[in-house]
Amino acid sequence: MDSAKNLPVAVIGAGPVGLAAAAHLIERGLEPLIFEAGPSAGAAIEQWRHIRLFSPWRFNIDDAAVRLLEAAGWEPPRPTALPYGGELIDRYLAPLAALPAIGSRLQTGARVLAVSRAGMDKTHTRNREGTPFVVRVEHADGETRDHTVAGVIDASGTWSTRNPLGTSGLPAIGEDSAADRISSPLPDVTGKDRTAFAGRRVLVVGAGHSAANTLINLADLAKDKPATRILWAVRGASAAKVYGGGDADGLPARGQLGARLRRLVEAGTIGLHTRFGIASLKSLDSGVTVGSVDGRTLEADVVVPCTGFRPDLDILRELRLDLDPAVEAPTELGPLIDPEFHSCGTVPPHGAALLAHPDKDFYIVGMKSYGRAPTFLLATGYEQVRSVAAALAGDHEAADTVQLELPETGVCSSDAGTSCDVPAAAAVASESSCCAAPEPVLVGFPTGLSHGRSSDNN
Ligand SMILES: Cc1cc2nc3c(=O)[nH]c(=O)nc-3n(C[C@H](O)[C@H](O)[C@H](O)COP(=O)(O)OP(=O)(O)OC[C@H]3O[C@@H](n4cnc5c(N)ncnc54)[C@H](O)[C@@H]3O)c2cc1C
Question: In what residue span(s) does the FAD/NAD(P)-binding domain sit (predicted)?
């Protein structure tokens, strides 16, 4: 950031990773300017405040943020407890955002519309590196303003861009016009959204932890409101991946979730429909008819789309990015987390070097850095922003000394080409096989599943 030393660094998003980025920048003597589209910090997590995290507190808080908080007399939560999303906000993000050091640099109701280089479109190369960025923001007062900054950290997550219900990555025919029959991705079915689900026919679509959480909560609702009917559609031939690694899961709460779901399906409480790729939705007065690619139909009152998320790359259109063509994560990170080959939940530690783009001093971090891969963990994001802040401050040694403090694990394997169940640096050294690298450096919480989608024989 040589030519722009006196300008601030824009941080897009005041989720846990954006706020952690701001804390690290402040420690480095850099000036963060945080833009948050929602009304307060943690606006995306606010949408799933009723869901319990799988990882305990000690892995959910950032060191630099904690240093700021503790200086103001903050009491840390019990490190081994599992917080709800709401507790993550109330006990950590809200107090952090309220600190003068953060609050004075945080603008809420400020939606970033675009990022570019000042006075240059994407095709201009001369003096590009030394040219500041311009961040275009729609502010709470309804005005749109351009902000000139030295660097940009995009921590805007993926919550606002869910994957469509349809197969092929496209909305199903009729999906848009059936929007009033489609809920948010993680509705609070036993709490504030209860009336929309009690006694209704509910179709949950998808095969991840969000689907598992929603299905289990619907089963709780059905105990109280027996007229509630629970349908579950997955694209694959079985739900085995959602049932997960059980006892082999490094996060017991996550393993138990899958086991409970399996029991509910086996008991008939949940009606599972496999190989149900969605082709169409037809909204009627009486409900919605959901059609599969092979001609089957399901009738429901409301559809819950647990189909995952994708990054919003539109706001980055004028930047020069280097993204993996499949995963839409930074090119070097993509193969390490590609859900086609990995479901193990672990990742090689990585920082600024791996997250860099051709447009120098621009970084995508946090959930958005994983692109379409679903396995992101906060602890990974905190290490990303520690390293990125160091890089922006010119401390390349600290940036390159990656310090991810998660348990080391040896149970992950990749099925990219071969399967080998060895503790390995996985694809760090080889993008095609986890067997090639000699040193065990994978860290994280193993799911107990050793392969990605490509191992499914359907
Ligand atoms: C249900 C669920 C459970 C999870 N459980 C765990 C867990 O147990 N452990 C774990 O480590 N991880 C977990 N994760 C994964 C991940 O850690 C979370 O998604 C986390 O919220 C990601 O943090 P983030 O800061 O990257 O993004 P977010 O929390 O999504 O924050 C992004 C912020 O950017 C804002 N924003 C978006 N677009 C713009 C824009 N254009 N301009 C300005 N602001 C914008 C949003 O309003 C939001 O506040 C879970 C995720 C989900 C969905």
Answer: 9-324
